[in-house]
From TrEMBL:
Keywords: Lyase, Schiff base. One of its GO terms (molecular function) is 4-hydroxy-tetrahydrodipicolinate synthase activity. One of its GO terms (cellular component) is cytoplasm. The active site is at Y131, K159. PROSITE patterns: DHDPS_2. This is Lyase.
Length: 295
């Protein structure tokens, strides 16, 4: 698994129920344009606002629809044994990978985090992608990532949603350098090319929900060694990543951008999240217009 993986939004109806028709439509669109992976129950998918059974149901529905690309399921929780259950469920339905962010809310030591992931790795067989998102959960240090990767063969990679190319560099050099099959993905659109140039494997980037053509074009240019073209697309992704600064949440930013671009996803977030209003929508529209992304 390499390239462009999309952390999928979760579409909702006006009554906050899951809009499965819109989900299927969006997944089929992403498969048609050729993304390399689809990741359900992601941060962008508001997994913390879904109950346990909804997360399982979404994973099952996604597995039915995703047929031509890698399928990843988020199984993070503050409860280690709940993570084990969700991970076993993803394994049983035939997911290719699970993605597991660290427990959030309570600060934990590296020893506690190692114990958390060890229990999961020992009780399941599916390949695990660690998810480092220090803005939302306990941070994963390079020594901890290296220890997990070298002790557990089913810990297969990491998504790095961290605005530090030095950290990503160290993970690539120190962890991937020792274990060649360990995958390193950025979670930030603006670090996609940086990560590839350092020897990483791709990106799991939310803006690919509404502008996957930019991410795919950058990846193709990189694979073709057309670095001038790749740099051009990298500058566009750096600019498009400003969308997160304009909105109050990942979900609001992505769903507003999707609406502007003509996707059928409704502008609805599950509480406690709220959609931003017309002022923010205007700013996001201006940003997309500057990149010729408004129909």
């Amino acid at each position: 698994m390499r390239g462009v993986i999309v952390p999928l939004v979760t579409p909702f109806n006006e009554d906050y129920s899951i809009d499965f028709q819109a989900l299927e439509e969006h997944i089929n669109y992403l498969q048609r344009v050729g993304v390399n992976g689809i990741f359900i129950n992601a941060t962008t998918g508001e997994f913390t606002s879904l109950n346990f059974e909804e997360r399982k149901l979404l994973a099952e529905k996604g597995r039915e629809i995703v047929t031509s690309t890698f399928y990843l399921v988020g199984t993070a929780s503050t409860n280690t044994f709940e993570v084990v259950e969700l991970t076993k469920h993803a394994q049983d339905i035939g997911a290719d990978y699970v993605v597991i962010a660290p427990p959030y809310y309570c600060p934990l030591s590296d020893e506690a985090l190692f114990n958390h992931y060890s229990i999961i790795a020992e009780k399941t067989d599916i390949p695990i992608i660690l998810y480092n998102i220090p803005g939302c959960a306990n941070p994963l240090s390079v020594p901890l990532i290296k220890k997990l990767a070298t002790e557990y063969s089913n810990i297969a990679g990491i998504k790095e949603t961290i605005d530090s190319i030095n950290h990503v560099r160290d993970v690539i050099f120190e962890v991937k350098g020792e274990r060649k099959d360990f995958k390193v993905f950025t979670g930030l659109d603006q670090h996609f090319l940086n990560t590839l140039l350092l020897g990483g494997d791709g990106g799991i980037m939310a803006c690919a929900n509404f502008a996957p053509e930019l991410h795919l074009a950058l990846y193709k240019a990189f694979e073709d060694r057309d670095f001038e073209k790749a740099m051009g697309y990298a500058r566009k992704l750096a600019k498009i990543s400003k969308v997160y600064d304009l909105a109050s949440s990942f979900g609001s930013a992505i769903k507003i951008a999707m609406g502007i671009r003509g996707f059928s996803i409704k502008p609805i977030l599950r509480p406690p999240y709220t959609m931003d209003g017309e002022e923010v929508k205007g700013k996001i529209k201006d940003l997309l217009s500057s990149l010729n992304l408004v129909p």
